[in-house]
Amino acid sequence: MNRIRVATFLFGALFVVVPLLVEAHHSGVMFDSTKEITVEGTVKEFQYTNPHSWLLVDVTNKDGSVTTWGFEAEGPTTLMQRRIRPSDFPFGTKVTITGNPMKDGRPGATWIKAVRADGKAFYPRGQAPQQ
């Protein structure tokens, strides 16, 4: 009887612990969703990969140095559904990109909106907001 109770307890604990671990992995806890930053630069690389894609953008600072910013988005399947393809952001593409910055101040953010020099906007989280 004790084995059944222990097994039941452990099985129940798994239903509590596993979802918390999954949520922690997929949460945006490292980003500050209360703030937005916008930078202008050129695409260095578009890492169109699972589980998260990254658009790397080289930004020229006021002193002439260059900082590479990383903008996190969903994986390729979600981006394809939102009509965002690797060919939309080849190396050297001029882009203005907005995101929720990293809490620790590193040059990274979640990707909210990217606008190429030709004016085309991309929203990896969904459609453009209605105005």
Keywords:
2 domains, five-stranded mixed barrel, globular, 131 residues, alpha+beta, OB fold (Dihydrolipoamide Acetyltransferase, E2P)
Total of domains: 2
User: Quick one: overall form?
Assistant: globular
The beta-strand count equals: 6
Order the strands across the largest sheet as they lie in space.
1-2-3-5-4
CATH topology title of the largest domain: OB fold (Dihydrolipoamide Acetyltransferase, E2P)
SSE order, one letter for each helix or strand? HEEEHEEE
Tell me the fraction of residues in β-strands, as a range: 35-45%
Q: Over the alpha carbons, how many angstroms does the gyration radius reach?
A: 19 Å
- Counted by DSSP, the helix tally is 2
Helical content stands at: 10-25%
CATH architecture of the largest domain: Beta Barrel
Question: How are the elements arranged and paired?
Answer:
Blueprint (H helix, E strand, L loop, with lengths): L1 H25 L10 E11 L4 E9 L5 E9 L1 H6 L12 E8 L6 E9 L4 E2 L9
Parallel strand pairs: 3-5
Antiparallel strand pairs: 1-2, 1-4, 2-3, 4-5, 5-6
